[in-house]
Amino acid sequence: MQEKLRGHSHKYGKNVDTDVIIPGKYCNLVDPVELGAHALEGLDPEYTQRMKKGDIIVADSNFGCGSSREVAPIAIKGSGTSAVIAKSFARIFYRNALNIGLPIFESPEAVDGISAGDEVEVEPSTGIVRNITTGKEFQAAAFPPFMQALIEAGGLQPYVERRLREMQTT
Q: What is the Cα–Cα distance from 36 to 108, expressed in whole angstroms?
């Protein structure tokens, strides 16, 4: 996993559901970049035009609620977004995000301390979130080494494939 993730924040409210993260009409797409071109289209139609690779979504509570649409975190990652920071995540979105290697961080204090457009930096190994714009620092839960390795590999499937190859060589 990258030592630090850095980008500008795009801030959203409570209960951002998977239907607005990636509208249903795009759920038949399989290419992550094609999905990413439509990320957040149901909530913020200009998101993909405004954001730059590496930017970070910051949202209130219950991010990713609604259907168990597995393509929602794929669309976010495919758009070039480097991470999502929220007060809380819907359980199924949380698991789907980790399974595809999208770094997500829970930190109510960081969400309250970051405004739209602020430059933000996250250290995934420590969970430290810095608002570069204001100079404030916040703590999110850090991923344990196993989860860091899973995210670094690009998700659960590439992680398992790598581990199986390693086991065959020993």
A: 26
Sign of the CA dihedral running 79, 82, 84, 85: negative
Q: How far apart are CA 69 and CA 56, in angstroms?
A: 21
Structure-token match 């998700």, residue found: 155
The CA distance from 133 to 117, in Å, is: 9
pTM attached to this predicted model:
0.92
Angle made by CA atoms 151, 110, 41, in degrees to the nearest 5: 65
**pLDDT tens digits along 19-75:** 999 999 999 999 999 999 999 999 999 999 999 999 999 999 999 999 888 899 999
Contact 104, 151 (CB under 8 A): no
| The 3-state secondary structure of 18-78, one letter per residue | HHHHCCHHHCCCCCHHHHHCCCCCCCCCCHHHHCCCCCEEEECCCECECCCCCHHHHHHHH
Give Rg (Cα) of the chain. Answer: 15
Q: With the CA atoms of 1, 151, 102 and 52 taken in that order, what torsion angle do they form, in degrees rounded to the nearest 10?
A: 20
